[in-house]
Design goal:
Length: 408
């Protein structure tokens, strides 16, 4: 690619910035324009439901790179600019201000938006979602003034916020429609541990909860469940998942299905456009098919592959998935995808809040949940990557050296 080539990156989150940074690290000398629809410099989203909400990290502390990084690396960061259309044939994008920007190659990293609830009262004041730093600031202020908080959704974000809120002395209720907490991400035994843990903190957890409506006069005052139960509250956080921001890609004619479809090189159905991060659905060997991952790991690793593809590289994406969640004083780290697991082995002491749960599918290790066990988590990543077939009794034995499985 010549030094005169122009690359436009749509989306300035973790993936978008990583694409730009990787291009420069790999010697690309052409123009890079990074378009972000928020006012802030690119920032980390995970701390918003944890450290930022508690006030232990400020706005500057969540930035992915300081302002000087963009000047030094000649990355033209354009904030408060959303792309309305992509013209693949003419190779340009049109922004919300009507500006037309030409490109030789483009990357889409538009991320996700919060899934919303379609029910009466969702528009009431005090009903929140959490995705942006603006959301986090508003939620931070309102939690400080609230007494009784309801979290709708027992996933990572909901439970992280619940842990923060109860530590601030708030009355907290978590409503989860599924039979168990974080059901798609962790083992049944791990879910039970977190149910007991959050309950021990004073958080009321209701599973199988079916919401009927939010009730209040301008401001939410309670939630009514389908069984007639009323739960009082003066603040609600809705954390029921996310939807891929694939509308502009779809409108441009790119293949989409629950996200922007990309191949193992992060290339879309157009050879001139790559995509990376939460907005993409990609072939994932750990999922045995197409999968859309919402994680920092995926955003970074896909972005590096996407940047390489723009430069003519043919290195495929094949990174083992991993996630983490800080809930009060418990750190959950997972690796792999627990799809189709038909066996689980516990290693360590649940009562001491330091253990791992291994997910097996027909004897093959496919995923591991680690609680306050960072060293085991790092080894687990390698074990899942290697697709080892360990003996369950070895996994359960805390004295057994897990690393020895990598030598087999």
């Amino acid at each position: 690619m010549s030094a005169l080539s122009d690359i436009v990156i749509i989306g300035a989150g973790q993936a978008g910035l990583q694409i730009a940074a990787t291009l420069r690290q790999r010697g690309f000398e052409g123009a890079i324009r990074l378009l972000g629809d928020e006012k802030s410099l690119p920032y980390q989203r995970p701390p918003l439901s944890k450290a930022f909400l508690k006030g232990t990290v400020d706005e500057e502390g969540v930035l992915l790179r300081p302002a000087a990084f963009f000047e030094t690396n000649k990355i033209d960061f354009v904030p408060e600019t959303s792309v309305q259309t992509i013209d693949i044939a003419q190779k340009h994008v049109v922004t919300s201000s009507g500006q037309r920007i030409q490109f030789d190659k483009a990357a889409i990293a538009t991320g996700t938006r919060c899934r919303t609830l379609n029910m009466p009262g969702v528009e009431l004041a005090g009903v929140h979602t959490l995705r942006s730093i603006v959301d986090a600031k508003r939620l931070q202020t309102e939690i400080a003034n609230a007494n009784s908080i309801v979290i709708v959704g027992g996933g990572f974000i909901g439970l992280e916020v619940a842990g923060c809120a109860v530590a601030m002395g708030k009355k907290v209720t978590v409503l989860e429609s599924a039979p168990r907490l974080m059901g798609r991400a962790i083992a049944p035994g791990t879910s039970q541990f977190f149910l007991q843990y959050h309950s021990s903190l004073g958080i009321r957890v209701v599973t199988h909860a079916q919401l009927e409506r939010f009730v209040g006069d301008k401001q939410v005052s309670h939630i009514q469940l389908a069984d007639g139960t009323n739960i009082s509250c003066d603040l609600v956080l809705v954390g029921v998942g996310a939807l891929a921001n694939d509308e502009i890609a779809r409108a441009a004619g790119l293949e989409c299905s629950n996200g922007i479809a990309v191949n193992e090189l992060c290339m879309t159905s157009s050879p001139d456009i790559v995509a990376a991060g939460d907005c993409t659905i990609h072939p994932n060997t750990y999922a045995n098919g197409l999968f859309r991952l919402e994680s920092v790991q995926n955003a970074i690793d896909q972005a590096k592959v996407a940047a390489g593809t723009l430069l003519g590289d043919t290195t495929a994406y094949n990174a083992v998935p991993w996630f983490w969640s800080d809930q009060a004083d418990v750190k959950l780290q997972t690796t792999g995808l627990p799809i189709g697991a038909n066996g689980h082995v516990v290693r360590g002491d649940m009562d001491a809040k330091k253990f791992s749960v291994f997910h097996l599918r027909d004897g093959v290790l496919i995923a591991v949940d680690s609680i306050n066990a960072p060293a085991e988590h790092m080894t687990a990543r390698k074990l899942v990557t290697a697709r080892v077939t360990p003996r369950p009794e070895s996994l359960a034995d805390s004295g057994f050296d897990l690393k020895s499985l990598l030598a087999v």
